């Protein structure tokens, strides 16, 4: 075998970077390499089309091992993670039955969310009956002002059951910055409250009771480098203020749990988690903890809410699967996959089973849990890890210059930056620079969604109207398109868009398909055609079909003749749209033809305008 390998590789002489660049330059035929092939990311750095061994020479990330400081390759030597499912608790007995059921179906971590008024000893006993706290990770989320009480009730319950508290693993999600981030209300007393929670948490030594809920930034549309940089500043703020309050860096750091979101930006997400562990380890190390184990980040990953959709909701399965894959490869501690129907209803047994199985598939069939940091050594991912670490660190330092994370949040700077990113991303969705399959590209034009929507709230956080500072906007990337399409459904009208295909066969078919996808995003009925001999014949057919919009689909060269003829034949009986951006566009506009759709169009704004014209909006 060794001889075979030697012979195989001897047939491929080494190629230098200069030789690769010469070949690429020749193939580009004069087009600039930087413009054509170098990708400028939203994270603020460039990504090249190829990387080589020389690109990772001297990088710190390539010299560490899994389980070793600074933990860029993982905090442990295996890649196993906990499969988590969250339960919104309204009926404690029913929630207990559900929890016990899913524990037999592959779940190894439970998350319970319930109202602060329900934090009572009898409810905790009912919720956890028959569940071994030493055998499964238990995570709890309730109102911040009830977190201290909840920890005490849990400790008492576990003791009463004879459990070894040192073996009971889990978390209580005390998020000190929830009020300003989510409700727009400053909370200057967070240090005292966090200190009380931390003191109470000593009763549960294996519990993480202080939360860095960076997933909230993710769900609000933050870019990956923003989520990373702000998460680091968030965690550092907690450590800095609580050490000033008299706690040791070790006990504070060991009580923090990072809850990240994960998006469909596959390789970038892998790099984010690797960079997060690395930078957090360096931050905690600067506080000189008692041991390096305090520098280990505990990271929970959950699929992003931002890119989930109501229409064509089964595509959400593809998005969340990619997100779970990147988190698993990156070596997180636990993962929660959102059910595909979470955007429009309380998830049912089917969608929850699929969400569980998405992770189990990665473990049982793909064996992602068998190899620690499988992406290590990849030239591309190693460079991405360092690049995103640089950008995250720059943001971390900028926040420190503002006076720390809480000062930046109280001033509304974090919220403004994240909301600006969300606006930019939604604009990218509107112009199809960011694709949400089934929403702004290749929509299912026969789907009707209004009747299936049972949950109207975008964020479900109970945000008050009395915000003192800017709060996070949890509008999803698809929200604007969904509002547009739902307006069409609720209007009781279904405008017909008629494709008047004529002339050049290849161009008319291509433009007909493009235009059908374009107008289908508003829920309009698309009437396609193979082609017409004359413009007049096409217009007659369109009017007989009751078309509200007629899209002329032909080649640029033919529009100078066909478009004026179509305008004359329609005589104002339907809206005329030209598919493309022909050279004669200005001449056509001078003749009264104003509507053009092409790859540079803002799909959302164009369709909004048509809704107004058609009396829908």
- DSSP summary, beta strand count: 15
Report strand order across the widest sheet.
3-4-5-6-7-8-9-10
CATH topology of the largest domain: TIM Barrel
Shape verdict = globular
Strand content range: 5-15%
* Straight-line N-to-C gap: 70 Å
Sketch the major β-sheet.
8 strands, parallel, barrel
The amount of helix comes to: 40-55%
Q: C-alpha Rg, in Å?
A: 28 Å
**How many separate helices?**
23
CATH class label of the largest domain: Alpha Beta
Segments where pLDDT lies below 50 for 5+ residues? 458-463
Number of domains: 3
Q: Quote the average pLDDT.
A: 95
Name given to the CATH architecture of the largest domain:
Alpha-Beta Barrel
Q: Would you tell me the structural class of the helices and strands?
A: alpha/beta
- Under CATH, the homologous superfamily of the largest domain reads Methylmalonyl-CoA mutase
Walk me through what this model shows.
It is built from 23 helices and 15 strands. It has 617 residues and is of the alpha/beta class. The chain has three domains: 2-32 and 46-58, no CATH class; 70-410, Alpha-Beta Barrel (TIM Barrel); 493-613, Rossmann fold. Helix 22 links the parallel strand 14 and strand 15 (596-597). The longest helix is centred in the middle third of the chain and has 23 residues, at 379-401. The protein is globular.
């Amino acid at each position: 075998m060794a001889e075979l390998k030697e012979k195989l590789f001897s047939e491929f002489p080494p190629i230098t970077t200069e030789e690769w660049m010469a070949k690429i330059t020749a193939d580009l035929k004069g087009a600039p390499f930087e413009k054509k092939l170098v990708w400028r990311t939203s994270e603020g750095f460039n990504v090249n089309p190829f990387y080589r061994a020389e690109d990772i020479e001297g990088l710190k990330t390539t010299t560490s091992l899994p389980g070793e400081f600074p933990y860029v390759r993982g905090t442990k030597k295996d890649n196993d993670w906990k499969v988590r499912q969250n339960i919104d608790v309204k009926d404690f007995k029913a929630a207990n039955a559900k929890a016990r059921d899913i524990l037999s179906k592959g779940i190894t971590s439970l998350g319970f969310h319930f109202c602060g008024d329900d934090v009572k000893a009898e409810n905790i006993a009912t919720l956890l009956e028959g569940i071994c706290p030493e055998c499964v990770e238990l995570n709890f989320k309730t109102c911040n002002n009830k977190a201290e009480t909840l920890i005490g009730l849990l400790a008492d319950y576990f003791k009463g059951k004879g459990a070894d508290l040192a073996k009971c693993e889990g978390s209580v999600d005390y998020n000190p910055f929830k009020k300003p981030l989510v409700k727009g209300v400053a909370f200057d007393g967070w240090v005292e409250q966090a200190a009380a929670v931390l003191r109470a948490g000593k009763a549960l030594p294996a519990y993480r009771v202080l939360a860095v809920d960076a997933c909230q930034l993710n769900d609000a549309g933050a870019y990956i480098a923003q989520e990373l940089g702000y998460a680091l500043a968030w965690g550092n703020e907690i450590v800095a203020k609580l050490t000033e309050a008299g706690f040791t860096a070790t006990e504070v750091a060991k009580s923090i749990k990072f809850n990240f979101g994960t998006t469909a930006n596959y390789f970038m997400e892998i790099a984010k988690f690797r960079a997060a562990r690395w930078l957090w380890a360096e931050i905690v190390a600067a506080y000189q903890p008692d041991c390096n184990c305090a520098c280990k980040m505990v990271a929970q990953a959950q699929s992003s809410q931002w890119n989930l959709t109501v229409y064509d909701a089964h595509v959400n399965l593809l998005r969340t699967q990619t997100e779970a894959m990147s988190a698993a490869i990156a070596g997180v501690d636990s993962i929660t996959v959102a059910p595909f129907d979470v955007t429009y209803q309380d998830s049912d047994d089917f969608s929850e089973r699929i969400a569980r199985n998405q992770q189990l598939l990665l473990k049982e069939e793909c064996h992602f849990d068998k190899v620690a940091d499988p992406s290590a050594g990849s030239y591309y991912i190693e460079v991405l890890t360092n690049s995103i670490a640089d950008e995250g660190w720059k943001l971390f330092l900028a926040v420190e210059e503002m006076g720390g994370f809480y000062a930046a949040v109280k001033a509304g700077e974090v919220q403004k930056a994240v909301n600006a990113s969300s606006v930019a991303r939604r604009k990218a969705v509107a112009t199809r620079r960011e694709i949400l399959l089934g929403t702004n590209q290749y929509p299912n034009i026969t789907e009707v969604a209004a009747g299936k929507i049972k949950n109207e709230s975008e964020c479900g956080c109970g945000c008050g109207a009395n915000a003192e500072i800017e709060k996070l906007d949890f509008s999803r990337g698809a929200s604007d398109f969904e509002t547009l399409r739902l307006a069409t459904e609720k209007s009781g009208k279904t405008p017909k868009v008629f494709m008047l295909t004529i002339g050049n066969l290849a161009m008319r078919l291509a433009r007909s398909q493009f235009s059908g996808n374009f107008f289908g995003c508003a829920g309009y009925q698309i009437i396609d055609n193979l082609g017409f001999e004359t413009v007049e014949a096409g217009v007659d057919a369109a009017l007989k079909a009751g078309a509200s919009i007629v899209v002329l689909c032909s080649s640029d060269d033919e529009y100078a003749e066909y478009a004026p003829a179509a305008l004359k034949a329609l005589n104002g009986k339907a809206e005329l749209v030209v598919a493309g951006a022909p050279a004669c566009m200005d001449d056509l506009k001078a003749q009264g033809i104003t509507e053009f759709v092409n790859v540079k169009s803002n799909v959302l704004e164009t369709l909004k305008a048509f809704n107004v014209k058609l009396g829908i909006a």
